[in-house]
Amino acid sequence: MAVVVITGTSSGIGLAIAVAFARASHTVYATMRNPSRAPELGQRAASEKLPITIAAMDVDSDASVKAGIDRIFNEAGAIDVLVNNAGIERSGSVEELSFAEFRAVMETNYFGALRCIQAVLPAMRKRRSGCIINITSIAGRISMSPLASYNASKFALEALSESLAQEMKPFNVRVAIVEPGIIDTPMARRIETSRGPSPYPQRRRFAAMFEATLKNSVPPSVVGEKVVDIVESGTWQLRHPVGPDAEGFLGWRAAMSDEEWVGWGALDDDAWYDRLKADFGLDARPTK
Questions:
Q1: Nearest-CA neighbor of 248 among 205, 280, 278?
Q2: Among residues 127, 2, 123, which one has the least CA distance to residue 73?
Q3: Residue 11 belongs to what H/E stretch?
């Protein structure tokens, strides 16, 4: 059984990944910024008697990551799997979203993952064994307003993962990218309700698309099960879209030229909703 470190486990996908690994009898170190503010995983672990140790670790902090990873190495002796899941989102146009918000998203979603990767790599390389799984999103391959800051961070993590995979394969360390579609998480629900006033229509329309998709919600456990399967199967496959809409969204984008994609995103409301329904079969037009 593996020793698994997971970041961002306070809710949603991270929590589901921790539970899935523990139910499969792996030893789980579930990290989050402030465990006292997110008791759900601890309660689940206690009720099911799962092998989960919850630890405070802030991926935005060099010192916190070093201390957290060192503590786990000292206690467990080795880290077999790192799952970089910690992430935040900000919704808004490039004009309206502050520079500080862009920086915050990149700090957590990209640099946070990089901190953790650099903390575990030397030991994995020397042991010639290990697995690093980076949770990105289909938003790491498809850019759509109003998630420019989130898209940029996930595109960056995808690029890092490709390079890392090339470097680590000779040392028998696997790297995988997991790309969820729209999953029913607190983050997705925040996007669903993001309809503040703006001269740009994309934020309102994107929220409506999320609302329509979440009517047939997909639980985070789908992602958790996929991540466990990647580790246990021994696969060297790099990218893993997850969820019933992930392949569809990726295929939809691939079927358009860059100019067609930009044109679709720039349509007026009526034409945009019509194209979404015609091309993707999703009726997101608000009824109120």
A1: 280
A2: 123
A3: none
Q: State yes or no: pLDDT of 75 exceeds 80.
A: yes
Span 94-116, pLDDT tens digits: 999 999 999 999 999 999 999 99
Where residue 115 falls (left for φ over 0; alpha for ψ -120 to 50; beta otherwise) is alpha
The pair of structure tokens assigned to 227 is 């991540």
pTM for the model stands at: 0.96
Instruction: Take residue 14 and report the two structure tokens written for it.
Output: 């991270």
Query: In angstroms, rounded to a whole number, what is the distance separating the alpha carbons of residues 46 and 255?
Result: 47
Residue with the two structure tokens 């579930």:
30
pLDDT at 57 over 80: yes
pLDDT, tens only, 195-214: 678 999 999 999 999 999 99
Q: Which residues contact 264 (CB under 8 A, 6 or more apart)?
A: 256, 272, 275
So which residues are the catalytic ones?
150
Please choose, from the candidates 31, 38, 37, the residue with its C-alpha nearest in 3D space to the C-alpha of residue 8. 31
Dist CA 73 CA 53 (whole Å):
13
Spans of all domains in the chain: 3-184+218-245
Question: Is domain 3-184+218-245 annotated with CATH 3.30.300.30?
Answer: no
Q: Which two tokens stand for residue 44?
A: 């689940």
pLDDT of 138-192, one tens digit each? 999 999 999 999 999 999 999 999 999 999 999 999 999 999 999 999 898 988 7
Tokens of 200: 């740009």
Angle at 191 between CA 34 and CA 117, to 5 degrees: 45
How many whole angstroms separate alpha carbon 67 and alpha carbon 60?
13
Q: Is 263 left (phi over 0), alpha (psi -120 to 50) or beta?
A: alpha
